[in-house]
User: Fold this.
Amino acid sequence: LTHSCALRSDGTVRCWGDGSLGQLGRGSVEASRANALPVTGLSDVVDISCGGWFTCALTSSAEVYCWGDNSTRQIGSLVTEGAISTPTRIPEL
Assistant:
């Protein structure tokens, strides 16, 4: 993995590490971060999973949001290819 994320008890997510493909969820493509920063616009999360260059989160209302690299459509077929730097709801789930 190139980055890490943590689910906090208040339902928010913080990520750190490599952000070159938007995998920190901060709304931009950025260099590595050593400190854990909040993911933009995401709350009420009950579970997260980090892939090599992307992350997905499950909310309490059973919606799935993902962000990071989608160059091979690993995030979802209905989502734009390339870097997705903010949590994006995956409609087909």
